[in-house]
């Protein structure tokens, strides 16, 4: 940056310098290429030789995208694929769900989850009496099955017989109930008929009295009047 000036000749191979002490020192930023994968600039100004290792921290998400990890830039840029896969794992169980519905058992990993589910599940026979614990993947692939044994079949037969007997008993009970209701209804109907007959008889008796009471009462009343008159005359 200075005007044209005198420069002391030096051996550039001795200390790596290309200028004499009279020249200004370069204060521009280092523009040397960075290691592959490093997004940071060199922390030193313009300098000879290699840049120092980058010790800044990178903030990245783990494979399962649930945790934030802080990793030294140097470790990540110098690691191979296997080491990078381990560095970017949060070391927790993978939260992804397998097609069978169970959670992946692997530690936080890259790529797709393995389809081979090792979760233990209970397999039952058709009648639900027998049970056995097997790997979920084997059951889904149809590699194993659990059939009913002779005892299961015998119990099923007995249960069917008991069910049929209960159904027959229920039908018989329903018939008895209906018969009882029918008899009660017929008894009530008979009682109503008797009451109606009695009422008709009473009405018939009452109608005969009302029909002849005038012919009966008039002579009786006349006799009573005559007797009363006779008594009055006798007393005088």
Automatic annotation (TrEMBL):
GO cellular component: nucleus
Domain NF-X1-type: start-end pairs: 38-56, 100-119
Keyword Repeat attached: yes
Keywords carried by this UniProt record: Coiled coil, Membrane, Metal-binding, Repeat, Transmembrane, Transmembrane helix, Zinc, Zinc-finger
Pfam families listed in its UniProt record: zf-NF-X1
Coiled-coil stretches noted in the UniProt entry, renumbered to this chain: 148-195
Sequence intervals crossing the membrane: 215-233
Any one GO molecular function term: RNA polymerase II transcription regulatory region sequence-specific DNA binding
InterPro entries named among the record's database cross-references: NFX1_fam, Znf_NFX1
Similarity-based family: Belongs to the NFX1 family.
Name by which UniProt lists this protein: NF-X1-type domain-containing protein
Species, as recorded: Apteryx owenii (Little spotted kiwi)
